[in-house]
Amino acid sequence: MSVDKERMLAGExxxxxxxxxxxxxxxxxxxxxxxxxxxxxxxERRTALLRELLGGLGEGSWIMPRFQCDYGYLIEIGAxxxxxxxxxxxxxxxxxxxxDVSIGPRCQxxxxxxxxxxxxxxxxxxxxxxxxxxGDNVWFGGGVIVCPGVTVGExxxxxxxxxxxxxxxxxxxxxxxxxxxxxxI
Length: 185
What we know:
Blueprint: H1 3-9, E1 14-15, H2 19-37, H3 43-53, E2 56-57, E3 62-63, E4 67-69, E5 75-77, E6 82-83, E7 87-90, E8 95-97, E9 102-103, E10 108-110, E11 112-113, H4 119-123, E12 126-129, E13 132-134, E14 139-140, E15 145-146, E16 151-152, E17 157-158, E18 163-164, E19 172-176, E20 179-184
Parallel strand pairs: 2-5, 3-6, 4-7, 5-8, 6-9, 7-10, 8-13, 9-14, 10-15, 13-16, 14-17, 15-18, 17-19
Antiparallel strand pairs: 1-12, 11-12, 19-20
Helix pairs in contact: 2-3
C-alpha cells in the first residue's frame, strides 16, 4: 500500500496520483461502466457487479444506473436501501448508508476535501477526505448534496436540492442551501 493510500484512509492530506489509487479508481470505473451499461432485466448480474464493487450491499438494496464512485470498497449500504438514477458517491473516505434509506435522483455524497487557504497545496493536488454517515430510514429528495464529514440521523428527511454542510439530527425535516432544520418529524 502506498503512503498516499495510507494517508487517504487515515483522513490526512494525500495526493491521488499514487499508482495503487489510480489502479483502484480504474477498477471502480470499469465496474461502474459495466453496471451502467447492463441490461435492465439482468438483475442478478447487476447485483453481482455491485457486490464486487462495494464494501457492502445489504439484502434487498438496489441502485439505478447511472451510478458513479471513486473506489467503491469504501461504500457500505444497508438492507432495503435504494439509490435512484445518477447517484455520485465520491468515496475517498467511508460512506456508510443505513437500512431502509431512499436517495433521490442525482444526489451526491462527496467525501473529498481540498486545502482552503493553502493555495500551493491545492495547486499541487493535495487533498483529504472525511466520512459520511447516513442513518436508517433517511430520505433524500432529488439533487441533495452531502458534504464531507456529515452525519445524518435516522428517520430524517432532506428536501430536494438541499446542500447538507453539517450534521443533521434524527427525525427532522431539513432543507435549503445550506440545509437547516425546518421542523421535527
